Automatic annotation (TrEMBL):
Residues 1-22 form the signal peptide. It comes from the Bacteria. It comes from Parashewanella curva. Its main location: membrane. It holds the Pfam family BamE. GO terms for biological process: Gram-negative-bacterium-type cell outer membrane assembly; protein insertion into membrane. This is Outer membrane protein assembly factor BamE.
Length: 132
């Protein structure tokens, strides 16, 4: 036989367990926005980069970098971080531009360089010009 005190304790425990489990059971109903941070770049922008470009030309093609080296303005960092709100998947990409004597000398990161990267801008055509 269950008395009132035991019944109340049992009912409280059941209500507590149901309310706590509701947080995880209905988690898919809660809207979580996608979070995009940094510089989004597509491959077409990276394909326009050429060796010996000036800093102004590189900034015109890619936009303002997220980070510039504080001690020497010879390294620019373009970083993109995307976290999906639905499944919490993460995309992280970076592109690092290295300058020597204020000219683009090297590019590293998660993007492929075009075949014409090592051809100076004066001697090559940009991708948009070749598609005409």
């Amino acid at each position: 036989m269950i008395n009132k005190k035991q019944g109340l304790t049992l009912l409280s425990a059941a209500a507590l367990s149901v309310s706590l489990s509701a947080c995880s059971v209905f988690d898919w109903l809660i809207y979580k926005p996608d979070v995009a941070q940094g510089n989004y770049m597509d491959q077409l922008q990276v394909d326009k980069l050429r060796i010996d470009m000036t800093k102004a030309q590189a900034e015109y093609v890619l936009g303002h970098p997220v980070l510039r080296d504080s001690f020497a303005d010879n390294t620019w960092y373009y970083v993109y971080h995307f976290k999906s709100g639905r499944d919490a998947s993460v995309i992280h990409k970076e592109l690092i531009l290295h300058f020597k004597n204020d000219k683009l000398s090297k590019v590293t990161g998660d993007y492929e360089l075009s075949k014409e990267f090592n051809t100076p801008l004066e001697q090559s055509q940009l991708p948009s010009q070749t598609q005409k």
